Amino acid sequence: MSRNLSITFGLLLVLALAFGVFAIVRSVNGSGPAEAERVSAETLVNDDSHYLDEVEGADVTVVEFLDFECPACGQMYPVMEDVREKYEGDVNFVVRYFPLPGHVNAEASAAAAEAAARQDSFEEMYQKLFETQEEWSGASEPTPEVFVDYAEEIGLDRDQFVEDMNDPAILERINADLPDGQEAGVQGTPTIFVNGRLMSSMPSEKQLSSVIDEELEAAQEKAAEEGEGEQ
After folding, report:
1. At 164, is the secondary structure helix, strand, or coil?
2. Most CB within 10 Å of its CB: which of 4, 83, 129, 197?
3. Tens digit of pLDDT for each residue in 151-208?
4. For residue range 93-147, what is the model confidence (pLDDT) as tens digits?
5. Domain range spanning residue 24?
6. What are phi and psi for residue 194, nearest 5 degrees?
7. Do residue 11 and residue 54 come from a single domain?
């Protein structure tokens, strides 16, 4: 084999390896084809799961397992709000609880959200908790009274809220999300799925939008093919 031919083969090998690395990076970042097995919708969404946005007939569902005290979830919050606004009326957004043991107020804040849900104000409390996270996170012991004040601020019945927060069924409801998260492979928060596709940790708005657009496009193509088949 000549020297020139050896160099050519060497360059081709380098290019092939580079392409392979690029493809892997794209997949990890959530911007390439979904090669990994998807988590089933039955695992990710239950009948009592909380929807921030629920669109009848939506082709895409985004699910986030979160801990309200988690700093990374707090950083993810404005990104998720931007994505929700961008796809309003087209995409479902679902929240699942996954309180982490290292956060003192993880369960108390989730209980606040669940108690607010009993007064049809889950989204309002969800937003309030993240917007005020720096005020109550990192405490040495649970501070449920802070969440009671928040409940009043968003217009909830104080006595009913306190009663609901102390209801053992609330904690059972929160912990009921944990087995689904574990089955889905959740190990930390935030963990986000788009139609069962696991996103990379802390995806950007661009990465999330890219995968959502892929799923919307795939659904449109499938609908078009089915329409042609019926003709």
Report:
1. helix
2. 129
3. 999 999 999 999 999 999 999 999 999 999 999 999 999 999 999 999 999 999 999 9
4. 999 999 999 999 999 999 999 999 999 999 999 999 999 999 999 999 999 999 9
5. 1-30
6. -120, 110
7. no
Residues forming beta bridges with residue 93, ordered by sequence position: 53, 62
Distance CA 67, CA 48 (A): 18
Between CA 218 and CA 210 the distance in angstroms is 12
The structural domain count of the chain equals 2
Residue 11 lies in a domain: yes
Please choose, from the candidates 107, 121, 127, 122, the residue with its C-alpha nearest in 3D space to the C-alpha of residue 174: 107
Can you read off the two tokens belonging to residue 92? 């479902």
Regarding whether 98 and 209 lie in a shared domain, the answer is yes
Start-to-end CA distance of the chain, whole Å, equals: 59
Residue 173: give its domain's CATH number: 3.40.30.10
Decide if 211 is inside a domain: yes
